[in-house]
Amino acid sequence: MQIIHLHPLAPTKPAVGAVCNGCGVCCAAEPCPVGVLISRKRRGRCAALVWDEAQHRYWCGMLLEPARYLPVNWPWLNRRISRWAQRSIAAGIGCDSDCVVATELDA
Fold this sequence. Notes:
This protein is an alpha+beta fold.
């Protein structure tokens, strides 16, 4: 069993295949292939997982601010990397996390 910590206002994880709602479960449990490159690890929370206080949801930092995670800051490269990351993580396709979520209330 793996324990992950999420913001208390994070939305509930959607069902597999449902539209992503920014719950953050998948990225907090393990990095995707893009996150492996950024986080330099294969397990645990992705370094690019970003909490959006205004929208009460998580986002992939590689989609929003790739320059924050890269050694260079070239606007043309940032746009390309953001698009590449979006395709790589299948953003907008649907939830693909089969993690089973339990809250502290369930314990």
